[in-house]
Amino acid sequence: MAEESYQERTERATPKKRKEAREKGNVPRSNEVNSAAILLISSLAFILFGKHMFNSVQIMMHDIYTDFSTIDLTVNNITQMSKNAGIGFAFLIGPFMLCLIIAGVAANVIQSGVTFSMQSIQPKLEKINPIAGFKRLFSMRSFVEFIKNIIKMIIILVIGYTTIKSEFIEFFDLANQDVSQIVGFIGSLSIKLFLRIGFIFILLAIMDYAYQKYEYEKNLKMTKQEIKEEYKQSEGDPLIKSRIRSIQREQARRRMMSEVPKADLVIANPVHLAVALKFNPEEMSAPVVVAKGMRKIAQKIKEIAQQHNIPIIEKPIVARLLYKSAEVGHEIPVELYQVIAEILAQVYQMKKKV
User: DSSP secondary structure string, 159-211?
Assistant: First the structure.
């Protein structure tokens, strides 16, 4: 047992273990893929719906402040105004939020397919274990996450600095422009910034997913002993299966031997082979093999035949052909009809003489 506990995990995970891990919600997944997808889709969605959203906000604000002085501020009016504003805001922000939801779901499905597991959200004591938490805090995974966050921060700072620097002169002209132009400039600059960061994040996401996949496969690896144990559980212990097959063969052999007394003749190779045949012209279209065997089984077949006065015909070539081409309980092959018919005729003549 000591050796088993120190075995190295060198074998790839079996399909059974992969299925169990998936049922527990343990699948390769990178949060960077989600972040990159949401960032890019939000930028593209803002390009598509940004102008419409800005115009809708202008109209909403204009209507609110235009009618505000003429509205009687009762509870019912304020409630209705809040309700209308909420509905308008929902229709305004709805398409944008829908794009983000689709991006998040699609990112997860692309990485690991559709998975649903209640085990991953079940409360576990080990999650609040301070010792386990301390180990996770200083684990290799935590170190990698820390490095990734540092890299992302540097990328955002560098891209933000270079993007704003390239548009820095335009900032001085904003003082002479109206609100819509200022908002348009800030929106255009933000989209440009988000797109640049998003494309860089895609490269990070690809590398991170490759690393997560590597870690996933590494953690799923099994020892040779685990594979053996799994095989025993799924397929059964080889020793037990061998014993069962042995018992089944013995039972089949006994059933076969019980049919020998019903045979009409036995065709034998003098020592090695014996095939017992039965033929009833009224019920059968051709002779049927009721038993066959080699060496000890062949000897047993001949002994039973002698005990029941069943003729034993020694035809080595025919015995070999029957043994190889005919199965117990089946008719003899067509190509042996003529030969067996001649042997049966010989047996019937012998019985008449007797």
Answer: HHHHHHHHTHHHHTTGGGS-HHHHHHHHHHHHHHHHHHHHHHHHHHHHHHHHH
